[in-house]
Amino acid sequence: MPVLPDVLAPGLKVVFVGTAASTRAAAVGAPYAGPGNRFWNILYAAGFTPRRLDATEFQTVTQYGLGLTGMAPNAVGNDDVLRPEDFDAAGLRAKIEQFQPRVVAFAGKRAAQEFLGHRIPAYGLQPEMVAVTRIWVLPSTSGAARAFWDESPWHALAAFVADD
Q1: What is the pLDDT of residue 145?
Q2: Is residue 160 a contact partner of residue 53, using CB atoms and an 8 Å limit?
Q3: b or e along 62-100 (b: 16 or more beta carbons within 10 Å of the residue's beta carbon)?
């Protein structure tokens, strides 16, 4: 059973794909709930939401055309503790094919690499697609990934989907 529930619906602009729930997110039952996580701040700063949502409001994201899911839905912990068998690329592919969002955005390179099966050379739009869905890779919002933080790919994604 997944640690955190998916928040998915047909016709979404962006479905954000995390790697696995952090210890804090699992404890409170809300994704991106760690005190150092930038996810909810960047959603607002980039214009995906009209105000900063609290992690406990995660189930409301569909009203903004957004969804949430994870690549390792049954695991808890940072990337460095996850094993290859924790990742469910086939399950994610089935969700993408079922709900057909405009973009699937991986919040971190590790999840994208596990899904695509190769290293990700750069953040942003990727050449691969799943049916009609584009793939975008973003810097992780985790506090553990602060050294790699760059909000410009998040703003670029917001501009990409703003045409809807």
Answers
A1: 62
A2: no
A3: bebbbbbbbbbbebbebbeebeeebbbeebbeebbeebe
